[in-house]
Amino acid sequence: MVSAADRAKDPARTSVWLTHRPPPRTRRTDRPAGLDRERITEATVRLLDAEGLAKLSMRRLAARLDVTAMSLYWYVDTKDDLLELALDRVYGEIAAPPPDAPWEPRLRALARAYRELLVRHVWVSPLAGTFLNCGPHATRMSHAVQDAIGATGLPRERQAGALSAVFQFVYGFGTVEGRFGQRSAEAGLSKDAWFRRAMAAVQDQPQLGPAVEGVRDLIAARGGDTVEEMYERDFSFALDLLIAGIDAMRARYA
Question: Residue 224 has what DSSP assignment?
């Protein structure tokens, strides 16, 4: 078996879900009662939500759990293990739609749920693609997405492209929306107040005049009295465009 030290140094390590790890030994007395992977994972999610990726460490997590940092190594080998476990845990917040529902409402529900996840847990987007995401919750979501895309009737060789069109869009949109919310919170302002401040700062730069006018016109045309409303209208219309595109391609291949 590969040691924890070797795994930590191995850039090609695969996943915490694919590594056999014997259950914690019970003969030592320094293993805190009531501590397990479940509790550690929940605490990791809370810490990431509160302080972000940069501040996650075994020591900070241990302090939250009121245990020693070394006691965590009874259950995980590396910080990457913590991140993988936390990532899969929050994917469990996405409810899989009924598999017998039509493909369009299924795809819309999954797209919205993924967007909400990225906004709610801003630390998730930097981790996308870093790990294999083959934990139970991520795998369940992946199957739900594949089933919805498969139900469109698109040829098999076109389904991956349709999946990418929808969920790469959602990833980008949700990432930007989540980081905007995080930035406004860090500034101690509401999203609307931060938006007004940012727009005012840009408008004070004469060299940006034409660009500012264009942005102002777009904002006025799309409507919405709040940042939340503007995000919602943009997301809804963009998703409508993608769904319509899939529908058009279905007709082409019918």
Answer: -
